[in-house]
Amino acid sequence: MSNEINLTNVPLSAVLHLYSQLCGRTLLRHPELPTARLAITGSSANTAATAHIFAHALTNCGIAVIADGDKFLQLVPQSLAATVQPRSVSLNESRTAAPPPVEELPAGSIDFTEAFVEQAAPIYAELIGRKFDRVSSQALPQPLPTIVLKTQTALTKAEIAYALEVHFAWRGVKLVPVDDKLARLVPLNEK
Length: 191
What we know:
By secondary structure, this protein is an alpha+beta fold. The protein has helices at residues 12-23, 47-60, 89-93, 117-127, 134-137, 157-170, and strands at residues 3-11, 26-29, 37-44, 63-68, 72-77, 104-105, 111-116, 131-132, 146-150, 155-156, 173-177, 182-187.
């Protein structure tokens, strides 16, 4: 039995929400994605086939869908696809042969809908065992761009930190240690 898909004039944000659920991955959305409305039609026999139809519609809209490990998909304009360097696999490679149990935060723990970078930075700082230094971060142009990130899967703290690092880099900033307790936002090209 096949399922018919017939979506017309659907905002990209709604398509991405459905796509994330279908593929069971957290989407890392580049800030330069088009603000398109999509039409998606097709017939599928299962969830994987439906996800494939959605991926094809995104590609037709100029969006590259790039696998990043088994928990993330990076969505970037096709013109930037060659510059993407997925690194989430290295998070698991650094573990020893008998790793200690790693605490995962449940799906939906992070739900940023247009959150400013300076709102996400304290969470990232906490994930890496530091406090966010707002004072020394104020030299950056304000307000900083926004982030859209909803964890669709259970993620470790390291995986959430990775997702935020990707989003920060796309917005031209990174969080760096100030000392052994603090971290601040700086332009990406600064140390």
